[in-house]
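sorry for the late reply, my laptop died twice this morning and i had to redo everyting from scratch. anyway the thing you sent over, i finally got around to it. pasting the sequence first so we're on the same page, its 337 residues, then the predicted structure underneath. double check i copied it right bc i was rushing
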Amino acid sequence: MTPHKHPLRALTRAAPVAQPASNRRLWLGVSALLCSGAAAAAAIPRSSDTSDADAVQWNALAIAPLARGGETGLRMSASRAVEPIAVAPQRKQLDLTLTTAGEPLGAMLMRAGASYGDAARAAAMIGAIPFGTTVHLGLGEPSGASRAIARVEVTPRMDVKLRLSRDANGALQLERQQLAVDTNPVRIRGLAGDGLYWSLRAAGASPQTTADFLHALATEIDVGADVGANDAFDLVIASRKSATGERALGALLYAGIDRNGVAPIQLVRWTGSGRAQWINAANIDRPVQQAAGIMWPANGRITSTFGWRRHPILGFGRMHKGVDFGASWGSPIVAAA
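ok and here's the structure:
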């Protein structure tokens, strides 16, 4: 029986093509590289030549997807450098730094290793603390699976520090320490440079403060077109700094910019009747411009006056709180005042 031959293989054998010398050298180099790779792979111990522990180690070092059996994070097999010990001594005290993340304080202390009774009493004495507060926890010698609380230090507010410790009888006691707070505002100054936003950020202003500063200036000038590279900005921010070094910045109090050849802008935040507004202190001595009255907004006639009228669409009487003007299409409209 004649063996079946692939038509492409038969065609290739029937009409061999002479290859250039450069191609032959390329194929020789590729063949040598493949042979060297095979030799290196042959040097890797096979599963039949290794012990079970070494086979697990080789499998852990292999690179393969988890879906295809790849494993990571396995323990390395013990070598001769490992010295076993009979007993691992436990530390008499533990000093931990925790950060609240929404769970109750008692649950967080228990998860850190405190006993149920101490964690419940500590949480009741300290009370609720804000999200993201740092808690310094000290645990004493272990008693079973948990430890007794030796101390808890927390600063729930910038002006208060709480310390929980043991008294002479071993009971938990709470000490409240009042911290001094410096309320002097922070001042930031600099040049606008290539971009006012990034210059403010580089000078230390937060994104919120920078946005408030730009919005304040926008009430007086076009920030994108009227600010030059050599114009100097000046802003004052409310600040609270505790004796421990913690600082919290508040609202923007002053927004100023000194432009070359143009009158400076000095905006001061003024709050009246529960509403905050910006007042330009540079114009404080200028007389207030009086309004000239109400102008005719369009070149047309009044079609409906202010007052009670029959609604033209709804068909019943109702109050009309405005004045309607009728003008031709395309007529210019101006501000009434």
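The CA atoms of residues 37 and 45 lie 15 Å apart.
thats about all i looked at so far, will dig more tmrw
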